[in-house]
Specification:
single chain, 107 residues, 2 domains, four-stranded mixed sheet, 4 helices, elongated
Length: 107
């Protein structure tokens, strides 16, 4: 995220570090970028998904008896050994949600 956001923003703005307003604005912008990166625990994230409360996690999981390594988009932190509903979005991208209680009983 930092790799594309900061160069684009800074390339369109003339920065005069002698003005206190510029320093405050830059500090607010960098603070927001830090908050998004800290909340999602990654620097490679879609800012819109981060604001909506989603995380992007690189993990290995078993699906239909096959072990798969991929990126997972989820709102809940994943726990080792837990069961989740997983939907494939693309070749290496999946969406995960917690498995509902009634579905756990049926499996």
């Amino acid at each position: 995220m930092f790799g594309y956001t900061i160069p684009y923003v800074l390339s369109f703005v003339r920065i005069d570090l002698g003005e206190w307003q510029t320093l405050v604005s830059l500090a607010i912008f960098l603070g927001m970028m830090f908050a998004v990166a800290y909340r999602t625990q990654t620097v490679f994230v879609n800012p819109i998904l981060a604001v909506a409360g989603y995380m992007l996690i690189d993990c290995t999981f078993k699906r239909a008896g096959t072990e798969t390594q991929a990126m997972i988009i989820t709102r809940v932190p994943l726990k080792i050994g837990a069961s989740y509903t997983i939907e494939r979005l693309s070749h290496y991208l999946y969406a995960a949600a917690e498995l509902q209680e009634d579905r756990r009983d049926n499996q």
